[in-house]
Amino acid sequence: MPELPEVETTVRGLARFLEGERIVQVRVNRPDMRRPFPPDLVQALTGARIDSLGRRAKYGLLHTDRDRTMIFHLGMSGRWRIDPEEPDRHDHLVLETQDHRFALCDPRRFGWVDLVDTAALDQWPSFAGMGPEPLGDALTARHLRSALAGRKQAIKLMLLDQSVVAGLGNIYVCEALWRARINPKKAGGRVSLAALERLVPEIRSVLEQSIRDGGSSLRDYARPDGELGYFATRFDVYGREGQPCHRADGGVIRRFAQGGRSTWYCPRCQR
Fold first, then answer.
1. Catalytic: 58?
2. Which residue of the set 58, 68, 179, 240 is catalytic?
3. What is the model's pTM?
4. How far apart, in whole angstroms, are the C-alpha atoms of residue 158 and residue 252?
């Protein structure tokens, strides 16, 4: 599933061609993906100008001059194609400006689109109660210390809780915990403030590096220009079960099931 860096990369790619442009045509090629398309989507977007694009957690945002925001989620296999040479039967939503065409292509149809009043964006159900953005100033070690206080659940699972931090996914939590030398099994409430002070900059660092690399192209994800991100070549633990730890300390990467997902870590340097 595309994670925060993949969504951020997508938003930045779209913004180069779409920001400030007016939508001249909207085409919905099927009634739904994971959820039905908003019934007023075509009417609301046709003729609207895209004032700006943004991201909240793993959701992309298209803000219009009509005080409406289109929210998109890429699901498992979704991506935007810019000026595709040929139509694709999985292009479920197409937006056109005077100069460009933007097709939301999703073979598995786990993605979806919503339309909300921009002023009420923070109250949208998936955003209400969501924690701070990991790339923003609101994510601090003291915020995590407060959110994790007294919690017995493992730190790895707590970081995946969207009410604690918005938008973190399995890949980047595994990588950040390795960089900060924190055992993913450790109870969140038992992680020291000093360890959390190591963790916060490592969360930012791993996300920013992945964004620079265009994301991690796992399975179906590709950037809007069709290019593949290459951060997957830099993984320190994710998917490296049985391989030596990059710290060259004799550790070997292990994998175990945690909360219904795989976790990778080095038992020698993450204690």
1. yes
2. 58
3. 0.90
4. 25
What pLDDT digit, counting tens, does each position of 185-224 carry? 999 999 999 999 999 999 999 999 988 887 654 444 445 6
46 contact partners, CB below 8 Å, separation of at least 6: 23, 24, 25, 26
Does the annotation mark 156 as catalytic?
A: no
Backbone angles phi, psi at 151, to 5 degrees: -85, 135
Where does the pLDDT of residue 98 fall: very low under 50, low under 70, confident under 90, or very high at 90 and above? very high
Q: Which of 2, 5, 38, 224 is catalytic?
A: 2
SS3 readout for the chain: CCCHHHHHHHHHHHHHHHCCCECCEEEECCCECCCECCCCHHHHHCCCEEEEEEEECCEEEEEECCCEEEEEECCCCCEEEECCCCCCCCEEEEEECCCCEEEEECCCCCCEEEEEEHHHHHHCCCCCCCCCCCCCCCCCHHHHHHHHCCCCCEHHHHHHCCCCCCCCCHHHHHHHHHHHCCCCCCEHHHCCHHHHHHHHHHHHHHHHHHHHCCCECCCCCCCCCCCCCEHHHHCCCCCCCCCECCCCCCCECEEEEECCEEEEECCCCCC
265, 184 contact by CB (below 8 A): yes
